[in-house]
Amino acid sequence: MVASGLFLASLIALALGKPTARNLKLHESRPSAPNGFSLVGSADSNRTLKLRLALAESNFSELERKLYDVSTPKSANYGKHLSKAEVQQLVAPGQDSIDAVNSWLKENDITAKTISSTGEWISFEVPVSKANDLFDADFSVFKHDDTGVEAIRTLSYSIPAELQGHLDLVHPTVTFPNPYSHLPVFQSPVKKTAEIQNFTAGAIPSSCSSTITPACLQAIYNIPTTAATESSNQLGVTGFIDQYANKKDLKTFLKKYRTDISSSTTFTLQTLDGGSNSQTGSKAGVEANLDIQYTVGVATGVPTTFISVGDDFQDGDLEGFLDVINALLDEDAPPSVLTTSYGQDESTISRALAVKLCNAYAQLGARGVSILFASGDGGVSGSQSASCSKFVPTFPSGCPYMTSVGATQGVNPETAADFSSGGFSNYWGVPDYQSDAVSTYLSALGKTNSGKYNASGRGFPDVSTQGVSFEVVVDGSVEAVDGTSCASPTFASIISLVNDKLVAAGKSPLGFLNPFLYSDGVAALNDITSGSNPGCNTNGFPAKKGWDPVTGLGTPDFKKLLTAVGL
Asked: Which residues are known binding-site members for Ca(2+)?
């Protein structure tokens, strides 16, 4: 009787197509949907899902070691960045991983295609019913209460035991859409446009206390007005969610604020995922115009590319974040600096997916690219101000392989902008390069905010610049804009100008910045010691002497940066 029962159970399992005979292991899960999402019900079993598999990188630990080796000033290999081929060799999946995954795909009659040059990412389509069976999942429909955004997701999934160590993640599964589309920028009440003033070196125009223009940034941070000379030194600006950079507005901006250079100075357009760049005035994006006007208008003479990412994402809920990095990794000569003014709360993205994207930044950093992101505009409550009981870190600011930029305001002295997102990651620990800085801050902080943040997490932001009342031309009119998205392109412009001097001197561009910033670069940064970033019904973190999770190490001084890099 017992034997017959077992035989019957096996027949039932086969009939249902369930992989019960396989040894499935829980791979990722979350206790509930992110705040703001509600369960609608089970997904239609016949609905087609486009899934992506991320295979394990063959030797990421060695890539990380080499990243720090070429990025640390005291290293004998400082500045000896890796080639495209060298990076690809370290991260391409091993043959054992490829064989294991391909065998599993064949066994389940799945045809997949490779969607990255190294073979790390592959994609395939299956109905919901089969996805549930393959991954012991429960794909359901979830809806965001405020925006109405719907998505089919599962709160957990498993993978065959034999794929552990070979398969990093299945996507999209436990990562939910970002309903607010990354955007960390907001507009201030329109203020009187600042008049351009002549000023002597080191003198800051009085107008800069109320509005920021390129002249203000040049004066505050000792930024030169002379043009860069090295065409190989490129600056990349990313654009998402149909934000278009308008050339006519840029021309108006340069005529008004950079009368010393040609108003015909412009940018190069690069597109992917079906991206475009409409020049219809009414479609000009505040974010896109801000980013382009304050890179072209501050990084004088540096060739600037606007990378417009469309809506045909290959990376799902990442909305092009991974696509743009993969595209740049495929280039033989990617830009030396990449600035992005978009982001989201760390909790909205699964840890495995966040790590995969962060590792892609490490690959680009090893190639000699400085990657900068705005830290967000919600203080300690995340990328945008929100209700919370515990502090909300932002992504990708918690990633240790990029540079997070916070915001300041005011002159003589600068102080922290109260919206400047900062804090400590829940996904990554404190990297070695900032361990002393974080430890010193936490000792000074004491028990303030105890239990509301991860005291062992990677701290952010790393640096900051002005971020309040930037004059931006949008569809012919001047608007005042606030946000850390003002700060990231500003800092990126300064680094691009430093790189120009380095390349002209026969040296390498700075590449991954943080090991330099937390060592030799500290002397070139203005320490910000006042202000805080409130949120979650608290005053947030206070700015203090040295590094702090509001303004980072401080704001840049171009002349001192040149000294710090040996020029």
From this structure: 527-528, 546, 548
Residues 322, 454, single domain; the answer is yes
Would you say residue 421 lies in a domain?
yes
Q: Tell me: do 35 and 163 sit in the same domain.
A: yes
Model pLDDT, residue 146:
86
Which structure tokens are listed for 453?
Answer: 């943040």
| 377 is a catalytic site residue | no
Annotated active-site residue 287? The verdict is: yes
Please pick, among 57, 287, 482, 500, the residue that the annotation labels catalytic: 287
Show which of 153, 171, 189 is a domain's final residue: 171
Domain ends where: 154, 171, 188?
A: 171
Q: Does 205 reside within a domain?
A: no
DSSP state of 532: B
Residue 282 predicted with pLDDT over 50: yes
Rg (CA), the chain: 24
Tell me how far CA of residue 326 lies from CA of 213, 448, 533, in angstroms. 34, 41, 34
Dihedral pair phi/psi, residue 290, rounded to 5°:
-55, -50
Among candidate residues 71, 158, 421, 485, the one labeled active-site is: 485
Which one of the listed residues 57, 168, 291, 500 is annotated catalytic? 291
- Three-class DSSP labels, 189-257: CCCCCCCCCCCCCCCCCHHHHCCECHHHHHHHHCCCCCCCCCCCCCEEEEECCCCECCHHHHHHHHHHH
Q: Cα separations (Å) of 46 from 43, 113, 123, 176?
A: 8, 22, 18, 21
- Predicted confidence at residue 20, as pLDDT, reads 43
Average pLDDT for the chain: 91
Rounded distance, CA 95 to CA 488, Å? 40
Q: How confident is the model at residue 180 (pLDDT cuts 50, 70, 90)?
A: low
- Do 557 and 420 belong together in one domain? yes
Rounded CA separation 521/500 (Å): 17
The token duo for 365 is 């950093």
Of 8-12, 323-327, 461-465, the poorest mean pLDDT is in 8-12
Provide the domain limits for residue 139.
Answer: 15-75+93-171
Q: Are strands 477-482 and 470-474 parallel, antiparallel or unpaired?
A: antiparallel
Helix (H, G, I), strand (E, B) or coil at 366: helix
Active site residue 485: yes
